[in-house]
Specification:
Layout (H helix, E strand, L loop, with lengths): L1 H16 L3 H20 L5 H15 L2 H14 L12 H31 L3 H24 L5
Amino acid sequence: MALFAAARQGRRDDAELGTGVWRRAHDRFRRGLDRYHQILEGIEDDDVYNELVGIADELGALLPRVRAVCVSAQASSPSTGLDIPGALLQVHRALSRAGNTLATTAEAAAMTRLDGARWGVASSGLDNVRRRAQLVAEDVEEAERAMPGGR
């Protein structure tokens, strides 16, 4: 059954996001979120785990917003390749930055996990993860504002 659900989701994604830059921006963000969640597996320190899960929830709440921006961008400036529609260059830049920052947030979470296991102190690492997660949120907000008629 999961195979059919994945195929249906893929067709839905193709219809809503296209196959070009907007699909890539969405998928990169989703992969970064998946990577962050993988880091959570096996964390032994309950305080670190709980803090990182809270951040994961905040980051996860951004995915529907990223999808909405990408769907809207695809509807207004369809993309099937690697060319970024000039009218939405700032939107794409903000989405790309959000995906990149999310990847570095996952790396920071991994380092926090390692530091907590090694030294028993993870507070400065958690601060770093929080800062990076805030940058991800700011990038998503910037993409939303950059859309024509954005907020």
